Q: What sequence folds into this?
């Protein structure tokens, strides 16, 4: 048995050094497993702090998750911090490339902010339970009528409880080098609540993370927080133009960052 452990201890570093495919699966498995462990730690802390489901639990989750980037060899550069210094409720929208987005989200998550996520996430073990405790709003993407009613309820909750919501308007993960057309839910939400939209752009992961090619290297992710877009006085008739305006602003920044992501690692704020 001891000999087996010795072999494993020697084999793992060798494979980490020589096989990019092994590194990819090792990092992915570690990421999932470690997030489950953090969920297990966070559950009793959240219950002790808030007694159950409460957006204030996101503070605990944020603190617990922020160190994970170092294990994966990731660094974040953030610009536009001043645009998050906005009082009251607002809707954050960002592009969505992989589950690694959670790390960037936790890097800059404002107080009293939670997310809108697919309903299936609630069944993801301890991670699903901690998402529920953090006040995450779950929607059924397959039933448009259900999603609309959840969004209407979310708009009321935003105003009543003075919270912020983070939405991925592409609706699914996308690593094709461009943004997917935006779904309208986030914009209906913002208009119903008469809350501003704050767009955030994650730079492309293609320089260090390629799912199909099974590559997961160290890398730097640039997060650019854009100026808020006001929705005061807007109605349902303005949703399409609001979506287009947000999409064009984010796409321009995303394409600009695709060719300018720094290769060196190191935390930075601007």
A:
């Amino acid at each position: 048995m001891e000999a087996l452990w010795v072999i494993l201890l020697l084999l793992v570093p060798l494979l980490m050094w020589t096989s990019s495919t092994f590194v990819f699966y090792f990092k992915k498995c570690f990421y999932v497993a470690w997030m489950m462990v953090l969920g297990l730690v966070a559950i009793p802390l959240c219950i002790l702090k808030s007694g159950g489901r409460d957006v204030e639990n996101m503070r605990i989750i944020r603190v617990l998750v922020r160190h994970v980037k170092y294990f994966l060899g990731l660094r974040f550069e953030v610009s536009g911090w001043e645009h998050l210094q906005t009082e009251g409720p607002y809707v954050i929208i960002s592009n969505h490339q992989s589950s690694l987005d959670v790390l960037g989200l936790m890097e800059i998550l404002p107080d009293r902010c939670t997310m809108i996520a697919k309903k299936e996430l609630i069944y993801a073990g301890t991670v699903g339970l901690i998402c529920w405790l953090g006040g995450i709003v779950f929607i059924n993407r397959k039933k448009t009528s259900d999603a609309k009613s959840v969004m209407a309820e979310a708009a009321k909750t935003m105003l009543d409880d003075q919270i912020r919501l983070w939405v991925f308007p592409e609706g699914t993960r996308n690593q094709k080098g461009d943004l997917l057309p935006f779904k309208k839910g986030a914009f209906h939400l913002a208009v119903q609540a008469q809350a501003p939209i704050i767009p955030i752009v994650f730079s492309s992961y293609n320089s260090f993370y390629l799912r199909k090619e099974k590559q997961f290297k160290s890398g730097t992710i640039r997060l650019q927080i854009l100026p808020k877009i006001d929705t005061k006085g807007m109605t349902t008739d303005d949703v399409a133009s609001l979506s287009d305006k947000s999409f064009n602003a984010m796409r321009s920044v995303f394409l600009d960052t695709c060719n300018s992501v720094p290769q060196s690692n190191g935390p930075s704020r601007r």
User: Anything to note?
Assistant: The mean pLDDT is 90. The beta strands are 74-79, 91-94, 113-118, 137-139, 164-167, 197-202, 209-210, 215-216, 219-225, 268-269.
